[in-house]
Design brief:
about 525 residues; alpha/beta; five-stranded mixed sheet; 16 helices; about 30% helix
Length: about 525
């Protein structure tokens, strides 16, 4: 179980098949294997050895794919850097895991001097852009051309493969340690359950520093399939890539899916090659899902549920659960059953399993679960207590083992002693014809402790008053669940992975309060 095996297999079985397509650049698996072996040789010549960390701060590209494969080929550990972070956050992650080599593209080359100053662990910077290599950096293509290819280090199993940083409760991000086996098991289990897509052409539009993008890439690599890469998500870029390269498989975060369908250039006929659409990383509103299903009849749909700590998906709702009967029964709202190789339980605050249908915290055990948090033994012990990963997600299991996620536990609103799950309110709000996007949070209330507050982005040209939206909610929700107040910004704050950043929405309301909501 090593993450270069897919590249070796693809080079043997279909060397001339396209491995990556990025803009005007295309390369076969044979060409990619040769470049990866040379890049790994260059990294070793720079002093990188087994378990050393190498970082990349860049937008998606074919070189990002090579970076992952070359890091593993050289026996090193990938440390992809969040492109939405501030300089201090970037420097923290580099220093925290002692990344000695950093690869940057044109977009981030201008930050290099400041990074050198704040992250002294970085001793070598490689420029992987389209423009001329700036002074003080090594040229990516020149390194590959000058290096001799090396043999694959063949690290695998429980060997560390990547450190992906995620949010931390202490104010600093946590480095999630994922092994070769973690990624491999998560990918193989999903392929076995959902069915492989041999010969597929998959679009990578989610950021590769995120587990959703990286996990997707690993799965396509194991399958030896072609990936089309766009630098970052834009609806225009996705539409162009699908039409130009006959993309068959899409994986999008719900906010991306909505932006795609709302784009003026969206035409279903231009996406005729699409065979499967996967969605995940955050909850999808039922109105958006129903709209998408109606627009793409005959296309297979599947959802994925997981997190950084599980190397992406641990379960998925398969295409069979997206048909008319599943939509009528509500099964389409499930995230599926526990995937192959993992177990899922729903427990109360004492860690005791709750009855089917009762809401509790989702916990997970299996080979996809992380090794732990880098240099954070206390947080690792808290997250993995009892041998189970405690996810912080609230959900319930039905009688047949289907898992339903109702909210992040931290996003649950307690108003007047009643629990309100934000996702339930968001699903109702999203059905209003004037609403393009919405998020529901709890804000301080002297009377109720917390009150339900809705943040709503209206559709272009649409109008809606607070009373209109509140009346709409009352047709489907108990009064205490309906928003007491509203904000109407022009856009939502989104993370680089396309999720609504609720901490940013809450911050103005909880600033200065003795109790904080994270």
């Amino acid at each position: 179980m090593n993450l270069t095996q897919g590249l070796h297999r693809a080079r043997q079985n279909h060397p001339d098949r396209m491995a990556t397509i990025f803009g005007e650049r295309q390369q076969s698996f044979q060409q990619m294997a040769e470049r990866v072996a040379r890049l790994a040789g260059a990294l070793r010549s720079l002093g990188l050895g087994a378990n050393d960390r190498i970082a990349m701060l860049a937008l998606n590209s074919d070189r990002y794919v090579e970076y992952f494969q070359a890091a593993w080929w050289a026996g090193a550990v990938a440390n992809p850097v969040n492109t939405r972070w501030s300089l201090s956050e970037i420097a923290y992650s580099l220093n925290d895991c002692d990344s000695q080599v950093l690869i940057v593209d044109d977009q981030f080359a201008g930050m290099v001097d400041a990074i050198r100053e704040q992250a002294p662990c970085v001793r070598t910077i490689i420029h992987a852009g389209e423009q001329a290599t700036p002074p003080g950096m090594l040229g990516y293509e020149e390194l590959i051309a000058a290096a001799a290819p090396v043999e694959d280090a063949m690290r695998g199993g429980d060997d560390l493969a990547a450190i992906l940083y995620t949010g931390g409760t202490t104010g600093f991000p946590k480095g999630v340690m994922l092994s070769h086996a973690n990624f491999w098991i998560a990918s193989i289990a999903r392929m076995a359950e959902m069915g492989g897509q041999p010969g597929s052409i998959s679009l990578i539009a989610t950021p590769l520093f995120h587990v959703g993008g990286a996990g997707r890439l690993v799965g396509q690599s194991i399958g030896g399939n072609t990936v089309v890469i766009v630098p970052s998500f834009t609806a225009e870029g996705v539409l162009d890539a699908v039409e130009r390269h006959a993309v068959t498989d899409l994986m999008l975060v719900p906010t991306m899916l909505q932006m795609l369908l709302d784009h003026p250039r969206f035409e279903r006929r231009k996406m005729a090659t699409i065979r499967r659409i996967s969605y995940g990383a955050s909850p999808i509103s039922l109105p958006l899902l129903e709209r998408t299903l109606d627009l793409f009849p005959g296309v297979e749909f599947a959802s994925a549920y997981g997190m950084t700590e599980t190397a992406a998906a641990v379960c998925g709702n398969p295409p069979a659960n997206h048909g008319p009967e599943a939509r009528a029964s509500g099964l389409v709202k499930s995230v599926g059953r526990a995937g192959y190789g993992c177990e899922i339980r729903v427990v109360d605050a004492d860690g005791e399993e709750v009855p089917r249908g009762a809401v509790g915290e989702v916990i997970i055990r299996g080979g996809c679960v992380m090794l732990g948090y880098w240099k954070k033994p206390e947080e690792t012990a808290a997250a993995l207590r009892g041998g189970w990963l405690h996810t912080g997600d609230g959900g319930y299991l039905d009688a047949d083992g289907h898992l339903y996620i109702v909210d992040r536990i931290k996003d649950m609103i307690v108003t007047g002693g009643e629990n309100v799950y934000s996702a339930e309110v968001e699903n109702v709000l999203a059905r209003h014809p004037a609403v393009a996007m919405c998020a529901v949070i709890g804000i301080p209330s002297a009377q109720w402790g917390e009150s339900v507050h809705a943040v709503v982005v209206l559709r272009t040209g649409a109008q809606a008053r607070e009373d209109d939206l509140r009346s709409h909610c009352k047709t489907a929700l108990a009064g205490y669940k309906c928003p007491k107040s509203f904000d109407f910004p022009e856009a939502m704050p989104l993370s680089a992975a396309g999720k609504v950043v609720k901490t940013q929405l809450r911050e103005p309301y909880w600033r200065g309060q003795s109790r904080k909501v994270n």
